[in-house]
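Obj: model holo form, ligand = pyridoxal-5'-phosphate.
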Amino acid sequence: MTTSNRRRPETAQWLKASNSITQQFLAFGGRADVVSLAGGLPAAELYPIEAIGEAARRALETLGAAALEYGAVEGFLPLRRLIAERMAAETGGAFTAANVLLTSGSMQALDLIGKVLIDPGDLIVAQAPTYLGALDAWRPRRPAYLPLDWQAQDVETLARAKFAYAVPNYSNPTGVLVPQDRRAALLDKVRAAGTWLVEDDPYLTMQLDGPPGPSILARDVARSRGAYDGSVIYLGTVSKSLVPGLRVGWVVAAAGMIQSLALAKQATDLSSSMFTQAVALDLLERDVDRRHSASIVPVYRERRDALVSEAALRLSEWFEWEVPPGGMFVWMRSKDRAIDTDELYRFAVEEKVAFVPSSVFDFTGEDRYAMRVNFTRSSPEVIREGVRRLGRAIDTYASSRPQLGRRAGPNSRR
Ligand SMILES: Cc1ncc(COP(=O)(O)O)c(C=O)c1O
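Output (holo structure tokens):
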């Protein structure tokens, strides 16, 4: 056999615009000797394993082989109905199964939205910094981006956009809770512009300092009559309220949009796992997710407080932050942009601690002066150790940059 020495075809262009830092930090953060403050993962030791086991057994007993078939592309009907009922109870709106598409996590919903709405060059007005997974999902579609201005967004720009994208509850990466008046103002403008608003809400249940108030979808519902046919495409998931491994998420939107997304989904994976949808149905019917969320919130609050108190000791000379009222992350901004967090990351690797540098959340890739630090995955002790390592990494970084001055800070090894 002869081997051709012709070059194989190149990969598609969008891959070249992708960055490998995400893969690097995921691989690095998974190492046992590393304190990972990088991922967006819940605390695995708190997962309700027993309840999930019982739900799985019941799902198989009740449904038999049907739990192991391909499912309907729109999702398992009883679970769609349950999500519609919950949404109606939460918002006062008229939702039915026709307003619900079940997805393999919210991540798939983002991908499907890209497939359905974005042609190359189309504009997205996105809350900035932006969830990295959304940027990843939409990159192959080659959209253009402008930052969403919660205070003074102009309607003309929105009218040119295919959609606005926001995570109003405890945003990823910043942990910001968007105030209600800004949500109302944005909805007014989205309606005036006649565009879509993608409201991504995975952190809803992670309320560390009290409830966040109504979603933008709820505000929109209050103004609609009859079956929901509004501008908001709302994304929910069990990844934070239960476990990410079920890969069960949902889109709630106007029935026409659900049909378009279902067409895109058919070409993506035919259907989400019937088995995990059946398990999720059993868990949600019994309110396991609500009880579980209520039980983990105090644990996460303690972890957040451990992170910010240790950071106040070790990092406040170089970084500043607001204490997030919920979610999973503290967003630390370098004071006076003194520290480039892409560079700091290399020093952090040496100290065996991981965070996520801001550049990956910026659609221009230019913001290199902040970092996302997770507080949910590890115990308070491990988090404190991670912050100490981060402090040492910053000291070494700073002393390798004469312009930053050499300070014998609280992190030196002596
Ligand atoms: C803002 C945001 N959207 C979507 C997702 C994806 O969630 P899922 O696990 O449901 O795919 C995440 C995950 O961290 C997220 O932070």
